[in-house]
């Protein structure tokens, strides 16, 4: 798989997050990271990025394989798509993994913003929407019906 600078940044973020937690949580974070990469390689982004961008991304996936999202797009677009990543259809099974996915997604948004990876002129409102989506996902994950 081709690695872009954005993939390297994600790897650094996850590695730093894993340093400050126990082994069980670090393993959850690794599962979340794999799920995020799978999401970026497989999800339909027409709703969050528009049909034109989604069609271009699909063509790049067919031609270039895994890693297409970051070959074409950046972290601003990732933040735009993160609400879909914490939707029920993409959440990892089980309450601990689902909660870790939501938590790590929230932390990733903050980290990207604090380290200057987001264009706040472009992503400011998107960031607020994504933060609200994370809060809704957290409330859903805390309900008793999730195993």
Instruction: Note poorly predicted spans.
Output: none
Q: What percentage of residues falls in helices of 4 or more residues?
A: over 70%
**What's the average pLDDT?**
91
What is the end-to-end distance? 34 Å
Task: Describe the largest sheet.
Answer: none
Number of helices: 8
* Counted beta strands: 0
Count of spatially separate domains: 1
Instruction: Output the radius of gyration.
Output: 15 Å
Shape: globular
Question: What would you call the structural class?
Answer: mainly alpha
Q: What is the ordering of alpha helices and beta strands?
A: HHHHHHHH
Q: What is the beta-strand fraction?
A: under 5%
Notes on the protein architecture:
The structure is a single chain. This protein is mostly helical and 147 residues long. The protein has one domain (5-141). The chain is 76% helix and 0% strand. It contains eight helices and no strands. 29% of the residues are buried.
How would you summarize this macromolecular structure in one to three sentences?
This protein has one domain (5-141). It has helices spanning 5-19, 23-42, 46-49, 51-64, 68-72, 75-85, 95-114, 120-141.
List its traits.
76% helix, 147 residues
List the topology elements.
Blueprint: H1 5-19, H2 23-42, H3 46-49, H4 51-64, H5 68-72, H6 75-85, H7 95-114, H8 120-141
Helix pairs in contact: 1-2, 2-7, 6-8, 7-8
